[in-house]
Structure formats: C-alpha cells, structure tokens
Amino acid sequence: MFGICIITIFVLIIVNYIFRKNMFNEVTFILLFWLVSVITNKFGNIVYYEISNKTYLVIMIGLSTFTAGNLWQTVYCSRHKKGDEKGQSIINWQVLYVFLVIHFLSSLNFLLSVFEFLSKEYSFLQIREIYQGYIEGVSFTNNYFEKITLHWIAQPLSILLMIITLVLLINNDYSHKKFILLVIIDELLYFFYTQSRTSVFYIVVCLVVLYANNRRFISALQRKRIRSVVAFIILGITIWTIVKFSDSKNWNGLKTYELYLGGGVSLLDYGIIKIDSKGFYSKGVNFFYGVYTIFYHIYYLLPVTKSDFNRNIVTIHAFKENFVRIGPKVWFNAYYSFFYDFYIDGGVLAVAIECLLYGVISSKNIIEMRLNKYDVEKQCKGLLMCIVVFMGVVRWQFVSPVFVFVYVYMFLIFHFKLKIRNVKVNV
C-alpha cells in the first residue's frame, strides 16, 4: 500500500500541474509535504512502528478529493470570476483601533505574568512550556477569565492585526503609519510573553505568499527586504531548534526536523486506531469544533449533566496533546494533521467529503486574494486560508476557537458600522 500511495501522490501532482500550469499553489504544497512525509516515515533514520494500510488509504483518498475540489473551484473561478484591481474594502478604523487597544492591554497583563515567573526564577524556556501547558501544576493564566482572554481575544487578534499590517505594507499604504508602528510594538510584546514559533511561522507564510502574488508590483528594494526577513526568521528558528536540543543525548535539531516531517504519519495511524477502538464518530461536528467549543464553554458553566457526546469529543481532542509512543524509542504529540480531525467525523467517508469541501474553500479564498490585490478583506481571507493550509500538517485549524474568532473580528472590522460621534481617529 505504501507504493500505491506514492504513485497516487505523483499522479495528483502531475494532474494539478496540467490544470494549473504552475507549481506554486496550495495543492502542490500539501501533495509534496505528504509525499516527503510518507517517504521519510518509511526510509528515514527514525524507526517507527509499521503503518497500517488503512492509514495509507485515508491519505490517498483525502489528497485525491482535496485536489479534485480545489481544481474544480479553480476552473470555475477562472471562467466566472474577475478581479477588481480598483476595488478596496472599507476598514472601520474605529473598530480596528478598539481591537488594537484591547490586545495591547491584554499583552501588558500577560507580561506581568511573565515577570512574576521570572521573579520565581523560572527560565524563559520553562515559561514557554508553562504557556503551552506542558508543566503540570503550573498555569500561565491565573483564572478562567484570563484563559478565555488568551484564547478568544489575544491569540486571534494577534493573527488578524499582523495580517492587516502586512497587507498595508505590501500595498505601500503608509497613510496609516501610526497604526502600523503600534501593531509592530504590540506584536513584539505578544511574542515576548508567548515565545511562539507558530506566530513567527504565520509571518513567514504571509510574506512568502504576498511576495509571490505581488512581485510584479513591488520594488526591487521591497523584494530584497522581504527575502532578507524570511531568510533571517528561518535561520533564527533553525539555530534556536539546534541549540534547544544540543544537550540531548538522543535528539538533535536535524533529527527533530525529521520527526516533524515523518512522525505525523505514525501519529495519524495511532489516532485512527484510537478512534476505531472507541467506536465514536462526531457526525460532522468536528469540522466546526471551534464553534462547538465556544458554546461548550458556556454550557460547561451551567449546572446540568454533561452528555456522553460532549465527554467523548472533548476526550478525543484532549489526548492529542499527550505524548504517545509511535516507535520503539519515539514519542510524539500534536501533529495528527487535518486527516485525523476529518476522520473523527465519520471515518474514511468523512475524510473524502470534508477534504473535497476543504479543497473548494481553499481555492475560492486564495484565488479571490490573487485577483483582488487592493481589496484588504479578500487579501486577509486568502492569507488566513494559506495559514490554514500550512498548519494542516498539524491540525484542521477550525477545531480551535482561535481561528473562529479571527473571522468574527475580521467581519466586525470590515462590515460593522460603528460610528462614535465627536471622536476623531487619526490614522
């Protein structure tokens, strides 16, 4: 089944190129990643447990339907959609500044937590592990309200403010210099207390996509700056990872990257076996689990008996954060991929249907971004979808309320008609 899986991916790459006439697109990224991932898992230096035929089948069907949905939407858009280079979304700057102030205040609050941990002689590495929830008995947040603020306000606003700022910069829109400067300061504060490599990866993804889509319209100096920033960030993350594992006897930076590439296949295999053994499927709910989680938090506070469905779906997500053995000497967590999140909904059939839908949605948003260079809203939606595709190697992003709130806040920024009398916002 391994050989059939490899052949299937190669065929899909060829079909995608025939329809697209280029290799720089979201389908190519996903197909190449899983090609490398499957090969690395089989022939890499890390020894994993044998992968079941069912897991290879899930990968083949998922990639096939994702490619089909994406290409169908691409062909449809090429025939019926036309970009409006002169059109531009109207940003409600009052709402945007309100969000910026809220995010800045939340950053100051969480910075106090960092200084408190530092005063207790915790290292920055330990604080990062506390933030990620890896140290038992120690919480980064002090109460339930702070936890909700972190996941429902701070994290989504950080993503959205960063994306809007990058779009303004790439379009040479310097009429909002004050906003851009404040966001840069705010994002630096956010990175200081989260130490999140993920947010840095988001910046890299957005810069690469913006560079590719706008290289004909930006100056040589801008192109050079973007390349330098991306190279600097990638080099910095690489050095950080190598240093982090330099004292480990069993692991080093290069071996860790190999685990990131190949370990996800074994985690997916483990997850499929786990779901099948429980016999629990969420029947489509997991596709919108981020929305479900928001209502579940409200429901959780009510003095009512929790249903078995709630307990099962929460449990099947919670174990993803636990390190599980995927090889004789290999433990890994988190990187179950979007295949696992779709499989929860109903096995192989759910993977086929939801990957098809995923392909259609991703193509629609990314094509509209390419066709509408000056439409900030469509640029934001396209970049968010590129992040969803990139992070699909870890999870389906909409199982988290973070990305749900990104879209809620984006809707308010572009469509909420808030007018404050006698107040002038200088931007």
Spell out the key features of this protein.
16 helices, mainly alpha, 427 residues, two-stranded antiparallel sheet, disordered C terminus, 2 domains, globular
Summarize the entry for a quick read.
By secondary structure, the chain is mainly alpha-helical. The chain is 71% helix and 2% strand.
β-strand percent reads under 5%
Overall tally of domains: 2
Radius of gyration: 22 Å
The largest sheet, given as strand count, sense and whether it forms a barrel, is: 2 strands, antiparallel
**Helical content, roughly?**
over 70%
First-residue to last-residue Cα separation: 58 Å
Task: Please give the order of strands in the largest beta sheet.
Answer: 1-2
Order of helical and strand elements: HHHHHHHHHHHHEEHHHH
Shape: globular
Q: Tell me the number of strands.
A: 2
Oligomeric grouping of the chains: single chain
What does this structure look like?
The chain is an all-alpha fold and 427 residues long. The protein folds into two domains: 2-82 and 248-372, no CATH class; 93-246 and 408-415, no CATH class. Helix content is 71%, strand content 2%. It has 16 helices and two strands. The chain has a two-stranded antiparallel sheet. The protein is globular, with a radius of gyration of 22 Å.
